[in-house]
Amino acid sequence: xxxxxxxxxxxxxxxxxxxxxxxxxxxxxxxxxxxxxxxxxxxxxxxxxxxxxxxxxxxxxxxxxxxxxxxxxxxxxxxxxxxxxxxxxxxxxxxxxxxxxxxxxxxxxxxxxxxxxxxxxxxxxxxxxxxxxxxxxxxxxxxxxxxxxxxxxxxxxxxxxxxxxxxxxxxxxxxxxxxxxxxxxxxxxxxxxxxxxxxxxxxxxxxxxxxxxxxxxxxxxxxxxxxxxxxxxxxxxxxxxxxxxxxxxxxxxxxxxxxxxxxxxxxxxxxxxxxxxxxxxxxxxxxxxxxxxxxxxxxxxxxxxxxxxxxxxxxxxxxxxxxx
Amino acid sequence: xxxxxxxxxxxxxxxxxxxxxxxxxxxxxxxxxxxxxxxxxxxxxxxxxxxxxxxxxxxxxxxxxxxxxxxxxxxxxxxxxxxxxxxxxxxxxxxxxxxxxxxxxxxxxxxxxxxxxxxxxxxxxxxxxxxxxxxxxxxxxxxxxxxxxxxxxxxxxxxxxxxxxxxxxxxxxxxxxxxxxxxxxxxxxxxxxxxxxxxxxxxxxxxxxxxxxxxxxxxxxxxxxxxxxxxxxxxxxxxxxxxxxxxxxxxxxxxxxxxxxxxxxxxxxxxxxxxxxxxxxxxxxxxxxxxxxxxxxxxxxxxxxxxxxxxxxxxxxxxxxxxxxxxxxxxxxxxxxxxxxxxxxxxxxxxxxxxxxxxxxxxxxxxxxxxxxxxxxxxxxxxxxxxxxxxxxxxxxxxxxxxxxxxxxxxxxxxxxxxxxxxxxxxxxxxxxxxxxxxxxxxxxxxxxxxxxxxxxxxxxxxxxxxxxxxxxxxxxxxxxxxxxxxxxxxxxxxxxxxxxxxxxxxxxxxxx
Lengths: 324, 513
Description:
The structure holds 2 protein chains of 2 kinds. Chain A has 15 helices and 2 strands. Chain A is mainly alpha-helical. A two-stranded antiparallel sheet of chain A has the order 1-2. In chain A, strand 1 and strand 2 form a beta hairpin. In chain B, helix 9 (242-251) packs parallel to helix 18. Chain A binds chain B through residues 1-2, 5-6, 9, 189, 192-195, 197-198, 200-201, 203-205, 207-215, 218-219, 222, 271-272, 324, and chain B through 51, 53, 72-74, 76-77, 83, 85, 88-94, 98-99, 102-103, 105-115, 132-134, 136-137, 140-141, 143, 154.
């Protein structure tokens, strides 16, 4: 066995990407794009491509946070509520005259608090991640309603809405830039920093990590913190795009975000997954959504298709795992 | 010789158990210190205290002449202590290099990592152990033995002075053992001090310089290897009064018949069981004696159909069993009481009656509906037959004592009217009175044309209760004794590998043939 491994190791370079774990999802995305290119008239146009990318940016940024939590073996169901809550906070600050940049920072501190509470309850009270974040899903969404009394906040400053609506060079929407920048940063963090390595090791084997002297609680705090802040950023950009802050936005997004991360090859048990995979996962979901709309297939099918994608992805992952 | 570390009067108790009591051990630099003891002697607790994974209740640790407190794994590492754990936990999702340098890189931060340099360092370590694998190989692609070597690499990747190895060979095959001992010798030559924890005396005598024996949480003796013998160490591992056992042995009433109930021929299971043949008569109670990992529990599970086997035949009442599922085991009227009653034996949120009825719900139901009354009747039958102390059959089993819970499990299986009982340590953790009762129950059941194979974590129990004892070591049967004329330390020899197994034939093996 060692010989074949050695041989596989030597064959590095450009072809290594073909053997990458993400190859499966990349191919699926490619097939999907080509198929839709034939089936839907307006699919492969500059406008549509950018609009798909922009549409997935908000969930995509949040999905990267979700990936990190899932790498450690956790789950965060409160992300979608957190997106709304952070956006609402910033909007309240901005409409009461606080400068945009300060409002953004303050609201992100607010979203970080959600992550800290999640981390605290999971680390210190030893509660399950699903229960804790399910509770927080309602608590945080409730806060968004309480703060706004259920009313939408309008008249957001232009320098804020630019973040969601602006085009760079008159072409590339700003949220896409944020999405790819954040993806690149966390791709790097996961691959080349001790923190990233610890996310994988805690998710891979908690006992081994503890025996090696890794502070598991600290790693978990970091994961929920990063996840919440990224959800916050996703929420801010989403509200900037809509131009109106409604407490009901992003409802139910947590499921499509988790779906995207799983489609991208992450495991619910932790220890497996990558930023590249998650980004592709988000794109697959976005492309399906867009394709169904372009082909005039009713919105009812979108949810059905999402579900089928998740099931297909986990079945394929499972079969791949059995073969190895 | 220079003293590296001194453990003085270390004590540790867990709720209900005194795991360590006043243990003092002195380890000199550049020696291999063997630490031996039966299951439950306190070895693992001692290791955990050394590694900072448990804190001691009292006593002190003098490390290189200074009094130290070891609070966590990180702390131990800083002092220069590393541990090779028995069930070495590893991250199978990570690469060899990522696993090896986990302790070194245990400080969480956004520090950059250069995997190229780390892989190169790992490669050098792997080469010293003759392991020709790229460090970027994922651990899940390795064999168990290779993973064990990785674990040792992990413990020496740090700049440590003391390595504690807890049963490091449990996952290794014979071939791998040789290279493993070479590695240990290399480590010693390079100036390392090693505490080698095992209950395998042959290994201890092969490599240790000094041997310390623990028993029931206390230190019995520390000896230089050259001044002692495997027989002496085995005796001090046991160290109970022999007369007491003799009296109990004589009280036993057995009803062994001539006819065989169970015949096992040349049973093999890769890496677990090797060439097992045995024969159990009607009315007989056979004890399987062996240390953890000797294969006793596995043998029971294979006979019941819970685990697969590669080759061999099993005959029950002269019919060959094609086992492979528990269903067939139950249909062949075999009952199996697992070792961990909470995890494998009971449904803790259900009542006594429901638990008892669980294995024969089909018979208790009419038209697919289970009537409360039939559960109550069935439960009541066994509650009174086995004298289970419970307020009613509807009491949740959680509220019963350990002994009574065990009786519920036995009742559950009796309800299926088995002819062969497989009991995996049935009296573990129950008090003396309940133990006697369980013995009485098993005896009376076996008398009615049945047979029983059991294991126990306590040798005296097997000697006083069973009609025959089969000893196992590393998956093979090493001896077969009538309990009439057997002593505890003789069994200890056969289950620790202190006696060369080739002598077994001459030395009283196969007494009942």
